[in-house]
Write a structure and sequence with these properties.
CATH superfamily: GroES chaperonin
Shape: elongated
Mean pLDDT: 85
CATH architecture: Roll
CATH topology: 10 Kd Chaperonin, Protein Cpn10, Chain O
Number of domains: 1
Number of strands: 6
CATH class: Mainly Beta
Structural class: mainly beta
Radius of gyration: 15 Å
Helix content: under 10%
Low-confidence stretches: none
Order of helices and strands: EEEEEE
Distance between the termini: 31 Å
Length: about 100
């Protein structure tokens, strides 16, 4: 099953945070926060402008992005959790 986002939506696979602190302590599941970074799996064609053209997406497949803690809609694809977000919900693009 493949998911193809529509309009200006982006399919993101969240990157899970480390389950261990810098000092070596393991965090229990209840102490973990929701991921705020992820890898772009697919993008839609872009938002349709008033003149009928499509706006170019600012992210592409394979990019690592930052998003709000409670942004997007969670979906499960082949047993893996993914998020579908609008491009405007993305806060930044990690480079390097």
């Amino acid at each position: 099953m493949a998911v193809r986002p529509l309009e200006d939506r982006v399919l993101v696979k969240p990157i899970e945070a480390e389950n261990r602190t810098a000092s070596g302590l393991y965090l229990p599941e209840s102490a973990k926060e929701r991921p705020i970074q992820g890898k772009v799996i697919a993008t839609g064609p872009g938002r349709q402008l008033d003149n009928g053209q499509r706006a170019d997406m600012s992210v592409k497949k394979g990019d690592t992005v930052v998003f709000g803690k409670y942004a997007g809609t969670e979906v499960e694809i082949k047993g893996d959790k993914h998020l579908i977000l609008r491009e405007s919900e993305l806060l930044g693009l990690l480079e390097g």
